[in-house]
Amino acid sequence: MKLICFMLLVIVFQADHFKNQRELMVENQLAQRGIKDKSVLEAMRKVPRHLLVPEKVRKYAYDDMPLPIGEGQTISQPYIVALMTELIKPQKNMKVLEIGTGSGYQAAVLAEIVEEVYTIEIFEGLGLRAERDLKSLGYKNIQVRIGDGYKGWPEAAPFDAIIVTAAPEQIPQPLIDQLAEGGRMIIPVGEEGKIQQLILGEKIKGKFKTRFISSVRFVPFLRDKN
Ligand code: SAH
Predict the structure, then answer these.
(1) Active-site positions, per UniProt (predicted)?
(2) Which residues contact 92 (CB under 8 A, 6 or more apart)?
(3) Residue 167 maps to a domain
(4) pTM, whole model, 2 decimals?
(5) Is residue 56 part of a domain?
């Protein structure tokens, strides 16, 4: 009985500790650096990032840096997730496609705000783990697919917004094609190992117009050889 009480106390203490860290992260790393969208700040105040990263890096979950998530991949630092989410101007009634599920964190942040999230991961192990973790956190509006995101998700297109979290050398044409009129895409573009450009694209009257947002460094966009 004493042991059970002690363990319960530890769990409560830990949950509280992470909640405090999350509050600090939102205030110091996001709000103070210019993230203004209330829905984004609210979502990131809510999503338990520490439950989506591997256990061995859990204690760093709310630190201002990317973290390893297995298969040589990384989850972006919280600020980059917030910036990319804010730039697509997320709204309740939107359907959003993400390429690069990774830990599932970006998908969860989106799912707090928009109606439907579709996310594609090329590594089966990562995709299945994210799908399981997102389900256990209670998300019902996220669909995970294993495969090469280059081809997008044609059956569910068009999308109101597309977020790409790995860097291709050029913007994949199928993703441009699957963007709805007035839709926005945020994507890092550039060569592996070099500084890449974070690009915001918008489809206006059928034309895809892009502008530079900032310099970034993402993991490379991989291609399925099949
Ligand atoms: N958004 C993720 C971070 C992803 S890191 C998160 O919130 O945790 C980028 C991810 O893109 C990696 O998991 C990598 O395996 C995946 N990836 C790379 N190329 C891909 C492709 N062509 N299709 C789908 N996923 C890809």
Answers:
(1) 76
(2) 113, 114, 115
(3) yes
(4) 0.95
(5) no
